[in-house]
Every structure is written in structure tokens, then in C-alpha cells.
Design goal:
The protein is mainly beta and 315 residues long. 12% of the residues lie in helices and 38% in strands. It is built from 3 helices and 22 strands. A hairpin with a 5-residue loop joins strand 10 and strand 11. The protein is globular. It comes from Paracoccus yeei.
């Protein structure tokens, strides 16, 4: 069955992920949902006369809701029947659509890798050519857009209570991983009954690291399909995209995040192929890429990427 979930003041959580939040939609494993997501607060809306237009739903949310613990507007939660702690929730991104005619990028004192470069808060509106999937940056170049969801999350363990939307974790959240794009399948561990899935933080374009703290932020609509695998929860989110497996970790220390992401790749190979742990270790050193996901979300992210085509036949 296919469902539609609009972003309204009654179907979003602004700035937080709450395992006690009431579901706004209930679905079965195997169902798909077209989800509307929004991006930014009042200070990120285009100025009058800019030629860009904020979505009516965005203005309604800003008028009626207030952020709590974080800045991201998240649509959901979605209750997936049959999902229970210890299960794996597979989220397949079938399609992503640019939902508005602009994106925004902001710099702010104290934020980003180089926090001293921002003297005051400045939000820059950048028109999007949705037909061509391109944008002309104010300093000249025309760039191809590569939209993805910065936040895909399940609710964390209820024992920890409500958490802010900024820091990612084993539940996913603000991963800011560019592989969370159309065609990807994201595996998330389930911590609460029904999983309680949320999506948001749409990005039209972002480089690894998200250096100034924001990407080309925008509203996205996504068609996502949900499937539950019983008793196979991964330790942390994993992504399968373009015949590549991506393992991740998030930690206040980037070295720890990178080490754990790499170890998870070695473990994945040893578990899912005929390679020994030692040969998997060697294979990763020769053929896997260990990358910085983001540096700006309190917990830094690292991901390890391996092309499955590098594996021997029958492995």
C-alpha cells in the first residue's frame, strides 16, 4: 500500500526525536510513503521580491510550532507495524523530488569548522532550477544538484528520553551522509515498538564534512519504502547504494568514529562473505575509502565505502 504524509503543524517534530511521540501515520512492512519535508526557520525564508517562494506548509509550521532542542523540522513519526527492538528497518529511497524553488546556506558565529569566519548570522537564498536540477551560486558557478536527506531516523531507546535533532547516533538522525539519496537502501536498528521513523533536513547539495555547518538546505519530497527484518538489527546505520556498502559511526572524537566505521566494514565483510577477518582487513586497505561524513554535528561522522564489485565471485 502507498501512503502520503504531508508536513503540517500536526505531523512534524521541530528540533527533537521523541520515543514518546504519538505516531502520525501507521503502516505495514512493505508499504511505501511519499513524505513531505521542510527546511529552516523564519530567518531562512526568501526575502520579498527575491523571486523565490516559501511553501505554504512551511509558513504554517513556523507560525504554529516552536523548535525544541534543535533546528531541524522532521516529518513523522511513522509507526511500522511489526517493528520491535532488535529488528532491522530497511528504508529504500525510491525517489527524491525538489519541493521548492530555492535553497539556503547559513554561516553563524561559533559554528562550522572555522567558526571565526562568521561575524554575524547570514542566511543566503539560492534559487534552484528544478527542471535542470541545477543552481547558479552567487559567486558564479553553475552546479548540478544531488539531493539527499540529511536526517533519516528511528526513535532512540525510550530509556534515554527525547533527544535533540543535531547529534546523530545509532538511531541515525543527523547523519548528513550524501549516500542517503534516491536508489539507496538504509538499514536502521529498531529501538522502540513500531520504529517511529522520521525524515527531514533536505539537502540539494553538500560536500563531505559540511564545513560551514550547513549544506544547500531545501525542502524535499521523498518516496520511501519500509521493510522490517526480524532480529537482524545492525549496530549502527548501514547504506547500500550504487552497489556500494557504506558503514558508519558517530563520536565526539573523529579518530574513534573513523576507526569504528572501518572496523564495521571489516566485520561486515567477514560476516557476509567468505573472506576471513584478516583478508577482509587487507581488502579494505586496498579498496575501501574511509571518509569524513560531517564535522559539525557535535558527534562527528565517518563512513567507510566499498564497491561490492571488488569482491571475488562467490565471496
Amino acid at each position: 500500500m502507498h501512503h502520503h504524509l504531508a508536513a503540517t503543524p500536526d505531523t512534524v517534530l521541530w528540533g527533537h526525536i521523541d520515543p514518546a511521540a504519538a505516531p502520525v501515520l501507521r503502516i505495514d512492512s512493505g508499504d511505501s510513503v511519499t513524505i513531505q519535508t521542510l527546511s529552516g526557520g523564519a530567518r531562512n525564508l526568501p526575502a520579498p521580491g527575491s523571486g523565490c517562494h516559501a511553501l505554504p506548509a512551511h509558513r504554517q509550521v513556523i507560525a504554529r510550532c516552536r523548535p525544541h532542542l534543535g533546528p531541524h523540522i522532521l516529518t513523522g513519526p511513522i509507526f511500522v507495524r511489526g517493528a520491535a527492538p532488535g529488528d532491522r528497518l530497511l528504508v529504500e529511497i525510491e525517489e527524491i523530488t525538489l519541493a521548492q524553488d530555492f535553497g539556503w546556506n547559513a554561516v553563524e558565529p561559533g559554528f562550522g569548522i572555522l567558526p571565526d569566519l562568521a561575524e554575524d548570522y547570514q542566511s543566503l537564498t539560492i534559487p534552484l532550477d528544478r527542471a535542470r536540477r541545477q543552481a547558479r551560486l552567487p559567486w558564479g558557478p553553475v552546479v548540478d544538484l544531488a539531493p539527499f536527506f540529511g536526517i533519516l531516523a528511528v526513535a532512540p531507546d525510550a530509556a534515554g528520553g527525547c533527544v535533540g535533532s543535531i547529534a546523530p547516533g545509532p538511531f541515525g538522525g543527523n547523519m548528513d551522509n550524501r549516500y542517503c539519496r534516491a536508489g539507496a537502501r538504509i538499514a536502521l536498528p529498531v529501538f522502540c515498538e513500531g520504529a517511529l521513523f522520521l525524515a527531514g533536513d533536505g539537502h540539494a547539495l553538500q560536500g563531505d564534512g559540511e564545513i560551514c555547518d550547513t549544506a544547500l538546505e531545501t525542502a524535499l519530497d521523498g518516496r520511501l519504502r519500509f521493510c522490517v527484518e526480524k532480529g537482524t538489527a545492525p549496530e549502527a546505520p548501514e547504506i547500500l547504494c550504487d552497489n556500494r556498502i557504506i558503514t558508519m559511526d558517530f563520536d565526539e572524537d573523529l579518530n574513534t568514529a573513523a576507526t569504528t566505521a572501518a572496523r564495521r566494514m571489516v566485520d561486515w565483510l567477514a560476516r557476509n562473505t567468505a573472506l576471513s577477518v584478516r583478508d577482509a582487513y587487507r581488502h579494505c586497505s586496498l579498496l575501501a575509502d574511509l571518509r569524513v561524513t560531517q564535522m559539525v554535528n557535535r558527534r562527528k561522522g565517518a563512513h567507510c565505502v566499498l564497491d561490492l564489485g571488488t569482491l571475488p565471485a562467490g565471496a
